[in-house]
Write a structure and sequence with these properties.
By secondary structure, the protein is an alpha+beta fold. The chain is built from 3 helices and 8 strands. Strand 2 and strand 3 form a beta hairpin. The longest helix has 14 residues.
């Protein structure tokens, strides 16, 4: 079986109080603690809602992402039901900044993406083994996803 992971806080209430804020000049992102700016394709950086300060990579070092194409027709009740079930993964402990998004690039055949952050590799591993995640993969993902690409990222430094 392929290893496939997700994790999350909640779409409305993540495990930590996250928000998004525009950071610095367009297309430049301040590197936490270095004072240098790096070019980026991101316009937004996750921030802590109570302070508004950006989160640094050491605080959330693992980003888990998956893009996918469902076997259901676009806009169907089955598609909506699948996405609602996927959103429940946000309640698994130690999942931060859980998001389900619609893919917009014509270069990618997948319609949706899910992303989330983990503080430690152990939290990510616990998510992968969590009964709710395992059940979702077995009962929904393997039966309803036509194609997907999983990518997991950690800081370079």
């Amino acid at each position: 079986m392929n290893s496939l992971c997700f994790r999350g806080g909640s779409l409305d209430t993540p495990a930590l109080p996250f928000t998004y804020r525009l950071v610095g000049a367009p297309r430049l992102l301040a590197s936490a603690g270095t004072g240098r700016q790096q070019p980026t394709h991101l316009n937004y950086l996750p921030g802590h809602a109570s302070t508004g300060s950006p989160l640094t990579m050491p605080q959330l070092p693992i980003e888990h992402t998956v893009t996918f194409q469902l076997s259901h027709p676009a806009g169907s009740a089955a598609e909506s039901d699948f996405l609602a079930a996927a959103a429940e993964l946000a309640s698994i402990p130690n999942v931060h900044n859980f998001q389900i998004r619609r893919q917009t690039s014509p270069k990618n055949p997948h319609r949706f993406g899910i992303s989330m952050w983990f503080e430690t590799p152990e939290h990510f591993a616990a998510y992968c083994d969590h009964p709710a995640h395992v059940e979702f993969v077995q009962e929904r993902w393997l039966k309803e996803v036509a194609d997907f690409q999983e990518s997991d990222f950690e800081p370079l430094a």
